[in-house]
Amino acid sequence: MASEIDIDKEYTFTLEVKDYFSTTVQNISVPTAFTLMDFNASGRALAIGKVSTQDNTFNIALKTIFENSAEFHSLTNFESGTNFNSTTTINGERVIFEGGSWTPSIRSINGTNPTYTVQYRYGRYKRINNLCYITFYGKWSITDAGTDYACITGLPYVSSNEMVGQALSLNQIYGAINRNPTRTGIIPDSSSRIHLLGENGAFACQWQTGDVWVGLSGFYLIAT
Predict the structure, then answer these.
(1) In sequence order, what are the beta bridge partners of 72?
(2) What would the pLDDT profile of 40-73 be if each residue is shown by its tens digit?
(3) Model confidence, pTM
C-alpha cells in the first residue's frame, strides 16, 4: 500500500465507524505532501517548496540558483550545514559571503612535524568581505612530538599583513603540549596557520607525546 502512494497527489479516505445502534461515516482529505508554492492565509507571506507558516516571510525550501547578481538591502543571514559562496550588493556596496568547513591539522612551525592519529576534529568558518570567523576543536594522539614549536594549519584564508598578529579566544588547549597555563593562539601576518603560545604569550608551545585537545575560535582579518 505504501509504495502505491504518490506524495504529489491528494487522497480522500473514508472512515466508517459502526456499533450495534448506528453507523457514522467521515471523509478525510489528505493534501499533497509536496507543495510547490503556497500563499499564507494572511495574504502577506509566500513559500516555495513548502507550506507557508510564517507571516511576513518569503520562504524558499528548494535549492536556489541565481543566474545573475542579487541585490539585498539588509544583511542576509546564512545558516547552512554546507559550504556557500555568494557575492551580493547591499546599499550599493559589493559584499562577499562565504562559509563552510576547514580542516585543522597539528604541525611544527619550522621543524619536523609531529606524528599523530586524529581522534576527531571539526572546523567551521564564515566570511563577510575581509572579516572571517573561525572555530575548531579536535583531539589528536601524538606518538612522536617532532621538533620546533607547535602550530595549527589549514585556515581557510591567509591573514592580513598589517595586524602584527591576531589573537583567538581559547576553547581549550591541554594534554600533550607544554607551557601551561594561560595558553593562547596567535595568527601571524600573511599566514594560514595559528601559533600556539603559553605563559601569557611569552613562550611558544611544543608538542609532547600523548593525547592533546585543542580548540580556538574568533575573528581575524584576511588578505584581500
Answers:
(1) 90
(2) 888 899 988 877 888 888 888 888 887 776 666 6
(3) 0.65
Q: How many CA atoms lie within 13 A of 211 on its CB side?
A: 5
Rounded Cα–Cα distance for residues 72 and 65 (Å): 16
Residue 114 is given by DSSP the state P
Position of cell 563577510? 128
| Residue range 113-156, pLDDT digits in tens | 999 999 999 999 999 999 999 999 999 999 999 999 999 999 99
CA nearest neighbour of 163 among 204, 221, 224: 221
84 pairs with which residues across the strands? 99
Q: What are the backbone angles phi and psi of residue 76, rounded to the nearest 5°?
A: -90, 135
Q: How many whole angstroms separate alpha carbon 17 and alpha carbon 35?
A: 32
| Other residues' Cβ atoms within 10 Å of the Cβ of residue 32 | 13
